[in-house]
Amino acid sequence: MTFITANWNPLGEAFYRKSELYEMCWNLRDGLRDCLVAAAPYGGPIALLREPVRRSPSSRPQLEIYSASGVSIASFPWKSGPVVHLGWTRHFSMGQEVVQSQVLEAKVFHSPYGTGVAIVTGSSRFIMATNIDDLKLRRLPEVPGLQGKPSCWVVLNQDRQTKVLLSTGSELYILDNTSCTAVSLPGLAPQGGSIVHMSVSFSYKYLAVLTDSGHLWTGPSHLQDKMSEVDTKKLTPPKQMVWCRRPKSQQPSVVLMWDRLLMVVGVCQDTIQFPTEDQCVLVGEMDGVRIISSTNQELLQEVPLVCQEIFKIASMAPGALLLEAHREYEKSSQKADEYLREIKEQSMLGEAVSQCIEAAGHEYDPNTQKSLMRAASFGKCFLTDFSPGQFVTTCRELRVLNSVRESSVGLPLTHTQFKQMTLQVLIDRLVYRQFYPLAIEMCRYLKIPDYQGVSRVLKHWASCKVQQKDLSDEAIARAMCAKVGDSPGVSYSDIAAKAYECGRTELAIKLLDFEARSGEQVPLLLKMKRSQLALSKAVESGDTDLVYTVVTYLKNEMNRGDFFMTLRNQPVALSLYRQFCKLQEQETLKDLYNQDDDHKELANYYVTASYREKRLESRLSLLQSAVDEYNKAKNEFSAKATEEEMRLLRFQRKLDDEKGAGLLELSLQATMEALLALGLYKQAEQLYRDFRVPDKRYWWLKLKSLAEKEEWDELEKFSKSKKSPIGYLAFVEVCMKSNNKYEAKKYVSKVTPEQRVKAHLAISDLDGAADAAIERKNDSEIATVLSRCSAADRLLIERLNRASTAKK
Amino acid sequence: MRGNPYSILRGGWKALGTQAIVWDEYLTGPFGLIAQYSLLKEHEVEKMFTLKSGKLPSADVKNIIFFVRPRLELMDIIAENVFSEDKMHSSRDFHILFVPRRSMLCEQRLKEQGVLASFVNIDEYILDLIPYDGDLLSMEYESAFRECYLENDQTSLYHTAKGLMTLQALYGTIPQIYGKGDCARHVANMMLRMKREFAGSQNQILPVFDTLLLLDRNIDLLTPLATQLTYEGLIDEIYGITNGYVKLPPEKFAQKKQGEASKDLPTESKKLQLNSAEELYAEIRDKNFNAVGAALSKKAKIISAAFEERHNAKTVGEIKQFVSQLPHMQAARSSLANHTSIAELIKDITTSEAFFENLTVEQEFMTGVDTDKVNTYIEDCIAQKDPLIKILRLMCMQSVCNNGLKQKVFEYYKREILQTYGYEHILTLNNLEKASLLKLQTSSRNNYPTIRKTLKLWMEDANEQNPNDISYVYSGYAPLSVRLTQVLARPGWRSIEEVLKLLPGPHFEERQQLPAGLHKKRQQGENRTTLVFFLGGVSYAEIAALRFLSQMEDSGMEYIIATTKLLNGTTWIKSLMDRPESQIS
Q: In terms of domain of life, where is this protein from (chain B) (predicted)?
C-alpha cells in the first residue's frame, strides 16, 4: 500500500496529487485541437464544438455532448451563427438587442440568483443577465477608452452583487450596475507589467491575476489584500489558468496550462510542474481541477489533510497506526496489539476510527477505501460507545459514489462534491441522463422515502416513456403498470396529461385507468371529450359532487335522448340526477320515469303532483293518471286506493256544495267523524258501506261521536243494532269518560265474562266487581279488586280473602 | 378519544376584521357541539343570522360569512341575499364556507346565478365526524338512511369514508376492517381506494383502533323500532334528544328553585345538556329504567351523607377540606334533583296502561307471537287515531319479525291507515316498502325465528338491575346489531356464517397494511379497541349495549361508536315519510 503516496507532490507544507479518473471512451480524430470545450462542474458532462469559426458559411459544426468519461450522450449540428464561448446553462434566448450587435466574448457564471451570462458586444459594452431563468438584461456602464474587447475579464460576486473585473492591459476596472471604477491590486510589484490573464476561484472568493512579465498575483476577490505574488518565469500567456483549492485548504494553488506544461503555483511560492503531451482542458471543481485530454481525464487536487495524516510516510497519527494495526492483524501478527495499545494509551482510538472513515471517503480507489473501512471496523470493535452512524453512512455513500463513477455512467464525483451537491440533485442528474434503474436502486439502497425517491424517478421515467413514438400504446401502458404499479406519489393523471400533450389520447386514457384518484381522472377525461368514461370514473370515485359535475356537463353537451341513454347505463348517476330533478326540474323527472317505463314511480310522481294542485278537477285528473300508472305497474292495491281517494274527493265536494260541510282535505275517517258530528248519519253510513270500513273502527267512531254529543238514546239504539264488534266494555268506558255512570251501567251486563270485573271497576262498583271475580274464581282478578279496596271496605276485603283462600 | 380533534379555527377562517355569520339553520345544532358562541365572539364574530331568503339583516361588519351545507336550494337563497345586499353596500366582503366540503355543483349554481364573483373566499370546513361524547362520534347527517336506501344517493357514504380517512390520519391506520351490508361494502371500498390515493403521505401514528366494524342499518331494522328501555333511551323516546340537548316540561323543575319559583315562566321548557361530563348521568344513562330509581336513591343517600360530614368536621383543616368539596357536592345535588325529576316524568309514562300495552305487543312480535295475523292492538290504535308514527312503528316491527306481512294483513293495515290518516300517506307507505321496513311476505319461510334463536336475540328473565347480557337494554330483546358486534369479537363471524347469509348485503373482512414498526405490542390484559360505525343511524339503547360490552370484565374489548345520526324509531320513521306540500303538520 505504500505506493499510495507515489503520485503525491509536495507543495509547501501540503501535497498535491494527480490521479486518473477515466480513460476517455471517445474517439477524437483531431484531439481537442480547434475545439470549444465546456465541462459542467460536479463531474458534469462535456460539450464539444468542433471548428467554432466556420471555414465556409455552409459548413455546420457538430455540437457533441459527452459524459465525463467520454460516452456520447447527444450530438446535433449547430445551426446558429459562429460560437464565441461554450458554457453550461439551461435553454434560453437573450433577445434582439444582442443579436444586432456582435458578441465578442461571453462568460457563464454562477450568481446567488442562479446561472448568469455576461457578454462583451461589438460596441465594447458589457451586457449581463444574473439569472437566465428569469432573464433580465442589464447594460453595464461604458468603460472609458475601451476599444474592442478587453485584454481579460472575469465576473465577480460580491455582497450579493455581480460585477465585472476587466483589464484593458494597464488599467484595471470594476464594473457594476451603475459605475465603472478604476482599481489597483494591492501589493502588486510595479515591475509587474500589464495584466494578461485573470481567474476567479470556484467559490468566487479568490482572484488570480497574471501579468505579461509572468508574475502571478493572488488575493481575495474583494481586492483588499494580497495573498502572494509568484514569478512564474514564463513570458507567454498560458492557455488556461484555474484555481485549485479545496475546503479547508492548507495550500491553495493556481494551475496554469501552456501547450506542453502544467504548472501548479502554490500561494507559498512553491511550484509543481507537470509536462503534458496533449492538448488539455482544465475544469475547475470545488475541491480540485479536472484535466481533460483527448485520451484521459485526471483529477488534480490537494491531498486532504486526513489522508495526508494517514498515508504520509512515517506518520504517527492515530488513523495511520490503526491502519497499520489492522494490516498486522490480517497478517496474524502480534504487532497489531502493540499498535492498538499505542493508540489506546493516548485514548485516541475513537479519533483513529473517525480518521479512517473520513479518509476512505476521500479516496477514489475502491481497494484503498476498503482497507480504510476495514481498519475502521476493526478499531470499532475495541470501542464500547462508538456511534456507528458515520461508518454506516460513509459505507453507503461510497457504494453510491463508486457506482456513479463507473465509466458507463461517468460522474466522477468526489465525496466533498457529493455532499455539497446533495443526493437529491444526484438522483435528478441520473434521471436526466435516464439511468432509471440505477437511480431506483440507489433510492432503495439509501432508503429514501418513496415520495422523494423511487416515485420521483418513476414519474420522470414515465413521462419520458410516453414520448417514445416507436412503442405501441398497449406496450407502454403495460410497461407503465408493471413498473410504476401503485407507487405512492406517482400521478398517473399527470403522466396521462403528458401523453395527451404528445397527442396520444388513447394512451392517455389507458394510463388514466391506473389512476387511483378518480377525482384526478375526471377533468382530463372531460378535456379529452371522453365524457362517458368520465362519468363512470366519477361514479367509481363515490364522490357524488363529482358525479353531479359530470352529469351537468353532459347535460349541456349532449342532446336529451343521448343524455338519458347515458344515464340509463349509470344507475348511480341516474338516481343522483333524479334527486336533482326532484328538487329542481319536476318535468324532467317525469320524462326520466317515462323513458324507463317506471310506472310505479310515475304514479307516485302524479300523486305528489296532485297535492300541489289547488283545483279539484286538475287534482282528479292527476290522480286518474296515477291510477292508470299504478295499473300498468300491476299495483292493484295502490290503484284501488287512489280510486277510493278520488271517490272520496268527489263525495266531499258534493257535500261541501250541498251542505257547506267543509270536508275537503279531510281523511275518510275524519269525514265520517265530521258527518256524525253534523248529525248526517245517513251520509256517514253511506261512506261506511261504500268504503267497506271495518265494523270495529266504525263502531268506535260512532260510539265516541254519540257519547260526545251526549245522544244517549241514539247510542243505546246503536248498541242494539247488532252485536257489537268491539264488545261492550268500550261502551262502559266511553260513557264513563263523559261522566255518565247511569248510561254506563246499562252496558255492564252485556260485557263478556272476562271483562266483567273490569267493567264493574270502571263504574266503581266494587261489590259487583267482587261478585264477578269470586264467581270466576280468578286470583289475579280478586287481587285487582282488593287493590282498589280502601280500609272502609272491611267486609268486602274479608269476603275476597276468604274466596281466595277457599280456592286454595 | 377525549379531546376535540377539530378546531373551529382550523382552515377557512381567513377573513379579517369584524364578521357576521349567516348560518344554514341545520348546522347550528351540530356546531353547538364543538364551539360555543362565546368562542366565536372572541374571533370577532359580531352577529349571527339564520339563512333566510330576501335581504340580509343589517350589521356593521366588514365580512359576511355563509356557513352552509352544499345544497342547491341554499345557493339560491344566498344568491338572493347577495343581490339585495350589493345595492346598498359595496364594501362588504362575502365568504362562503361549505360544510362538510366544497361542491362544484353548488359553485356552478352560484355562477349561473351570477354571484360567484362576489365571493372573496370559497372554502370548505371539513366536519364529518363530530365528537358527541367521549366514546361517540356522529355525523349528524339526518337524511343518510333515506338517501341511501330510498334515493340511492350515496353522498353520505362518501362523507363517511372521508371522515374515516381523517380519523385515521389523526389516530392511525385501522388494521382490520369488518363489515356487513351493501353500504358498508361501499364505504370500505372507498376507504381502500382513498388509502391508495393518499399512499406514501400517511402519518406514522401508532393505531388507536384495532378494528373497524361497519354495519348497515338495514341489516338490523328491528332494533330502532322497539321502544328503548334504558334511561337515556327513554328520554330520547319521550322528549327527544337533539344534538345532546333535551327540552323537558318545566313543571317538575320550577318548584326546585323555591325563591324564584314565581318568576319562572312555566311555559318555557327546561333545556338540559346530557353527556358524560355529568357524573351522575354517566352512571345511570345506560341503565335499564327499572334500575334507575334504586341508583338515584343510593346516590341521594351518599350525597346527604356527604353533607352530614360537616357535623363531624371539627378541626379547621377538616372544615377547610369540607368546604373545598362543596362546589362539587352542590353540583352533584342539583344533578341529582334534575334526574330525579326526569325519572318521575318518565315513570308517569312507563307506568301508564298505554305504555304497557304497547310494550307487550312489541315483545309479542319480537318473540314471534301471532305475527302473521292482524293485530288487534294496532287495529284499536288506528281506531283511536293514535299518532301515525306509532302505528307505523308497530306495523314495521310486525313485518320485520314476520319476514313480511301476508297480503291480506298488509292490505288491511294499509287501507286502515289511508282511510284514517289520509290517502296522501300512500307515498310514505311506498317509501317504507322500498326500505324493506314493510314488505309483502313472498316466501312462506320466516327467517326471523332462526336469526332470533341463533343469535339469542330474546332472553327470558333479563336481569334489569344487574345485567349480565345486553338484552337488558330492551328488557329481554338483545339488539341484533350489537349481538353481531359481540359475536365478531368472540368467537368470530365464522360461527354464524348461516345467519349472516340471511341478513341483507355481503359481509367481508379487509386488512390494511400498517407501516413497519407500527404494529401494536399488546400488554397482557390490555383491551383491544373497536370502532363500530353504524351507517344509517344508531339508537341510544344500542350505544348502551355496546358500553355494557366495553365494561364487561372478560370482554377484553373496548368500543367506540360512530354513526351518521343518532335516532330512535320515531325520528327514523319520520325521516322516511313523504309529506306532500299541502300537508303541513
A: Eukaryota
